[in-house]
Amino acid sequence: MVGITGALQNKATVLSGKHKVHGDKPSFNRANMCRSLAKGTARLVEFLRSEDVLSTMAVFRELGVSIEDKGDEVVVHGVGFDGLRAPQKRLDMGNSGTSIRLISGVLAGQPFSAEMFGDDSLSKRPMDRVTMPLRQMGVVISGQTDRDLPPLKITGSDHLTPINYTLPVASAQVKSALIFAALQADGESVIIEKEKTRNHTEDMIQQFGGEISVNGKEIRIKGGQTFTATDVTVPGDISSAAFFLVAGLIVPNSEITLKNVGINETRTGIIEVIQAMGGDLTITDVDEVAKSATLTVRSSELKPTEISGDIIPRLIDELPVIALLATQANGTTIIRDAEELKVKETDRIQVVADMLNDMGAEITPTEDGMIIQGKSQLNGATINTQGDHRIGMTAAVAALLVADGEVILERSEAIQTSYPTFFEDLSHLIV
Predict the structure, then answer these.
(1) Burial class, 149, CB count within 10 angstroms (exposed 0-12 / middle 13-18 / buried 19+)
(2) Would residue 1 count as lying in a domain?
(3) Whole-prediction pTM
(4) Given the DSSP bridges, would you call strands 6-7 and 407-410 parallel, antiparallel or unpaired?
(5) In the annotation, is 317 catalytic?
(6) Which of 52, 237, 317, 425 is catalytic?
(7) Total structural domains in the chain?
(8) Which value, to the nearest 10 degrees, does the dihedral of the CA atoms of residues 25, 27, 29, 31 take?
(9) What pLDDT shows up at residue 1?
(10) Mean pLDDT to the nearest integer, 364-376
(11) Any idea of the CA torsion for 53, 125, 339, 183, to the nearest 10 degrees?
(12) CA distance linking residue 355 with residue 381, whole number of Å
């Protein structure tokens, strides 16, 4: 559909077909971390070759973990928390906010120093929400400016102080960083969430034999734990599925079936939004153990809705493409309580609004969300991803509605961060 920079597919008349969704990126990242921190050998099949996942693998190799990449299968020879070694060079996190934040928690309990850095986009993302509580646990960690932008320098401790901490923001990444630190602390830590966020870390830790107590928004973790190597099945990524769900709903006369979509209860906000907007969505083949299902969408007349409150953490990554969905609803959709979007790969409130407005939509950005007027006729424009993979994929789906002009996508390579085969997979559904 497009090269590094080029014209996107315009005006799809019909989308039709079936697609198996690749494994969930946040789960792959956490699984790789837990495998590295477990003692023993574990395998991962149907490996997701996204840049974020590959960055995490490279970091743990530098920390002394043997990881064999056999193409379709990755074999990790875990060394345990006490088997990590001081890196001989700076740790490159690429574009991965998940990696730099969670690995900060891992390194918090290690008696050596390290430096973590990333690309231009990651270098603009504040890390103070992680560094501040880690300092309370006895970690020496600092970044650039008072917001602790990367690069981050960290010196951990093998005598971490347990923490009792209430998260000021709803962030699964911050929560997960503190959990990994707490697992290495001298005693029990208590973490209280502002709102319940995705629980992949908690689930993964339990799969690797760790103990973690969750009671509502309160999480208790005892320090000094060890992991046992295990093979883990990773369900399909609902964040990637979201682009196909929206495409199937907004392109006329379309029907798309997506297999192996993860339906973890902390990630299903987009399903609830689609249902609230009157979208034609069918859920079948539910696997309660793997927490996956088959989702089928058909083009629909959409109505507006309000998206706010405790649903936001369950769809925060999907909001860019949900904003596109809302441009095709008959009325005004309001997104509130989503200020977390400002500290993603880009300020996604402003960037999404600018992108879709350039294409003919009517979106007003607010301090914590957007006001979206529908229904909009979209036209051609030149879009720069600004290094944000979700901006690029949202633009590609929006282009399917464009009849007048071309959509030119600059820096499309950003999509490699999470979905290397996105354009190929989308083109297979265009009839």
Answers:
(1) middle
(2) no
(3) 0.86
(4) antiparallel
(5) yes
(6) 317
(7) 2
(8) -150
(9) 53
(10) 97
(11) 60
(12) 8
